[in-house]
Design brief:
Number of helices: 2
CATH superfamily: Pleckstrin-homology domain (PH domain)/Phosphotyrosine-binding domain (PTB)
CATH topology: PH-domain like
Largest sheet: 7 strands, antiparallel
CATH architecture: Roll
Strand content: 25-35%
Number of strands: 7
CATH class: Mainly Beta
Helix content: 10-25%
Structural class: alpha+beta
């Protein structure tokens, strides 16, 4: 009798799945961790207002790359294709585990903007609301971010 032999294909682990988005970081504000959903559009409007105000005084756009995976959410400056990524120069702006993503807000009136509320695990009971702007609103959706973050 001949021994049985077979090859086992290694399946890709969920942590290997990653989606990245090229976005503009509009701004962020610390908020209380008990901030409710009805208040978030006001916070997003305030972040956008502060961003417009600061861009009049000092024009600066922060192009970023948002990496979303089941392992976490990471935001890094987008160096573009002309510059090679250097870990000594280019570090991440923020990095969170998916369980810290508390809410995602997508404005149906202006689909190019969306916000992400991150609960900080620290004792200070603060959360951070980040507002992003996509050049192409069809490329970034709440569903796409959630799917990448919580892939099976």
């Amino acid at each position: 009798m001949e021994p049985l032999s077979f090859k086992v294909k290694k399946l890709q682990a969920p942590t290997d799945i990653s989606v990245d988005f090229s976005l503009q970081l509009v701004g962020s504000l610390p908020v209380h961790s008990l901030t409710t959903m009805p208040v978030l559009p006001w916070i997003v409007a305030e972040i956008r207002r502060l961003s417009m105000q600061s861009s009049i005084e000092e024009p600066s756009t922060s192009q970023i790359r948002l990496y979303v995976s089941p392992a976490g959410l990471r935001c890094e400056p987008d160096t573009g294709k002309s510059q090679q990524w250097d870990p000594l120069i280019c570090s991440s702006l923020f990095e969170y585990k998916p369980q810290h993503v508390h809410k995602l807000i997508h404005n149906s009136h202006d689909p190019s903007y969306f916000a992400c509320l991150i609960k900080d695990g620290a004792v200070n009971q603060h959360s951070i609301c980040y507002v992003f702007r996509a050049a192409d609103p069809t490329k970034v959706s709440k569903k796409a971010i959630l799917r990448a973050c919580f892939a099976p």
